[in-house]
Amino acid sequence: MKNTIYVTFALLLVLAMVPAASAHFKLLEPQGWIVEATNGDPQKAAPCGGTTANPGTPSNIINKIQGGQKLHIKVQETIYHPGHYRVALAVNSRDELPKDPMVTTKEGARGPTSVSAVIQNPPVIPVLADGLFVHMSQSAVPFETDLEMPNINCAKCTLQIIEFMAEHGLNAQGDFSYHHCADIQITADTKKPIDTRWPGQR
How far apart are CA 142 and CA 100, in angstroms? Predict the structure, then answer.
């Protein structure tokens, strides 16, 4: 009986020290701009991952694609949370990336908890796609799709993939989203018109 009380107390103590559940995802394709752990960390800070304590180790990988072609996007959720994904593209600077989506919250035991987020439909530049991979249960297989890239020239664009997490507490470094980015070199297809909607394109 005494041992049971000690075990129960120890279990409660451990549970009290565990933070609120948090989703994680790993960017599988294209290759990310920082080296990711098995669970995808570091990924909390906007706009491109890392954390204050661990900004991440650059991978120095630049993915190359021709403009107007489809780019394969593949992510693996490593710790489940309901939610969806958004993909955006910055041509000249990461400052061009949009803010994390506006979120509706409710008050929880530990502060605000996310309920839903605004999805751009249709997406507005620099967002390429929004509301991807909506899920309410855990998936053992990666989420993947092909997205058409704009026909532009950029030596080092930033492709951002974020996951909005529902039923999640506030992430002080990244609102209610986790973040990954990839460096992309896009070379325009000379047989197609340049997409002048994007910054610096003529």
Answer: 23
Task: Please give the Cα distance from 108 to 10 (Å, whole number).
Answer: 25
CA 35 to chain centre: 15
Amino acid in position 51? T
CA 111 to CA 108: how far, in whole Å? 5
Residue 47 is classified by DSSP as T
Can you name the residues that pair with 143 across neighbouring β-strands? Answer: 75
Locus of tokens 């890392």:
50
Three-class DSSP category at 39: coil
For the chain, where are the alpha helices, taking DSSP H only?
Answer: 2-17
The dihedral built from the CA positions of residue 44, 47, 48 and 50, taken in this order, carries a sign that is: negative
**Six token digits for residue 68:** 């107007």
Tens digits of per-residue pLDDT, 7-22? 333 333 333 333 344 6
- Give the separation between CA 31 and CA 64, rounded to whole angstroms: 11
- Residues 6 or more apart whose CB falls under 8 angstroms from that of 79 comprise 21, 22, 23, 24, 39
Q: Which of 48, 6, 9, 46 is nearest to 27 (CA)?
A: 48
pTM of the complete model beyond 0.70: yes
